[in-house]
Amino acid sequence: MATRQNKVKSTNDIELKDRLVAVNRVTKVTKGGRTFSFSAIVVVGNEDGIVGYGLGKAGEVAAAIAKATESAKKNLIRVPVLNGTIPHEQSAKFAGADVFIKPATTGTGVVAGGAMRAVLESVGITDVLAKSKGASNPHNLVKATFIALSELRDARQVAQNRGVSLDTVFNG
Predict the structure, then answer these.
(1) CA distance 35 to 102
(2) Where are the alpha helices (DSSP H) in 61-137?
(3) DSSP-based three-state secondary structure for 107
(4) DSSP code per residue over 27-44
(5) DSSP 61
């Protein structure tokens, strides 16, 4: 499991845009009958390297979305974005969802489906190739995509972790 060293400290000065990924009607069976409520998953991001996701559940759709948005703002991570793409290939797995993301050249666009597309666009990635294998459950896809994004490192982070210069990372 990835360690999230790149958590965002405060959200006061960040302008976040939210995207609704999925809404499900869920049922709780009680002695008195069925109780219906709604579950929502929302992705928020500033389209400049900061993104978060959240889950919310309530009796009304609007309330579930509001709860999910508040939860997402508490779960932000910073992702290295270089010239509109990611620094290197990365794959990750969460439950049945297995995702693979790969950098792409300028002009390629976001080649990803559904839940992964929402996450990648919220980060601010404009050119990427992405593939989801296994389950297509939006909750697990979003979580697997977040694991993959949180494991990305740019050259500066690698140099800092190794205690060497940027030139040493690239040349030897």
Answers:
(1) 43
(2) 61-73, 114-123
(3) coil
(4) EEEETTEEEEEEEEEEEE
(5) H
Q: Report the C-alpha dihedral over residues 142, 143, 146, 151, rounded to 10 degrees.
A: -140
The token duo for 104 is 């792409």
In terms of Cβ atoms closer than 10 Å to its own Cβ (0-12, 13-18, 19+), residue 76 is buried
Contact indicator for 73, 51 with CB cutoff of 8 Å:
no
pLDDT tens track for 103-154: 999 999 999 988 999 999 999 999 999 999 988 899 999 999 999 999 998 8
Task: Dump pLDDT digits (tens) for 53-70.
Answer: 999 999 999 999 999 999
Cα dist from 32 to 26, 28, 29, 147, 165, whole Å: 16, 10, 8, 41, 67
